[in-house]
Amino acid sequence: MVTYTDVFSGFSVDDIDAARAFYRDVLGLTVTDNAMGFLDVALPAGGSVLVYPKPDHTPASFTVLNLVVDDIDTAVDELQARGVVTKLYPDDVLPTDAKGIMRGNGPDIAWFTDPAGNVLSVLVD
């Protein structure tokens, strides 16, 4: 069996500077530049996600990062105050309330995008 020394995930963006500002300043995550000019986004429970520039970037068609919170309403209010739009989907696709929170169908969750169009979420676990 292979022995792994670390495991991490990654996804692309079209503008590394915009991604750095969003993940650091809007989401409040710890972001560092690595030696290759990519971003390492530290995850609160440990580990990190690699964010790398890709000139022909196409946003992922799935949620690339889920941020677990204790209070979904407070989290959404704070994100919206920072300019994040959490009402992404029409109600016939994913029924959400006026804040963009889907409630009572699994964990309460709200989706939004980063500057590159990748889908992220905040949810109560």
Give an account of the 3D structure.
InterPro entries: Glyas_Bleomycin-R_OHBP_Dase, Glyas_Fos-R_dOase_dom, VOC_core. Residues 4-125 form the VOC domain. Pfam families: Glyoxalase. This is VOC domain-containing protein. With 125 residues, this protein is an alpha/beta fold. It has a single domain (9-124), classed as 2,3-Dihydroxybiphenyl 1,2-Dioxygenase, domain 1. Helices cover 17% and strands 30% of the residues. The chain has 2 helices and 8 strands, in the order βαββββαβββ. The protein has helices spanning 16-26, 72-81, and strands at 9-13, 31-33, 39-42, 48-53, 63-69, 101-102, 109-113, 119-124. Strands 1-4-3-2 form a 4-stranded mixed beta sheet, covered by helices on one side. The radius of gyration is 15 Å and the shape is globular. The termini are far apart.
Summarize this, please?
Pfam families: Glyoxalase. With 125 residues, the protein is of the alpha/beta class.
Helix/strand order, N-terminal first: EHEEEEHEEE
* CATH-defined architecture: Roll
SS summary, helix count: 2
The CATH class, by name, is Alpha Beta
Strand order across the largest sheet: 1-4-3-2
Output the CATH homologous superfamily.
2,3-Dihydroxybiphenyl 1,2-Dioxygenase, domain 1
Q: In the CATH scheme, what's the topology name?
A: 2,3-Dihydroxybiphenyl 1,2-Dioxygenase, domain 1
**Got a strand count?**
8
The structural domain count equals 1
Report the average pLDDT across residues: 94
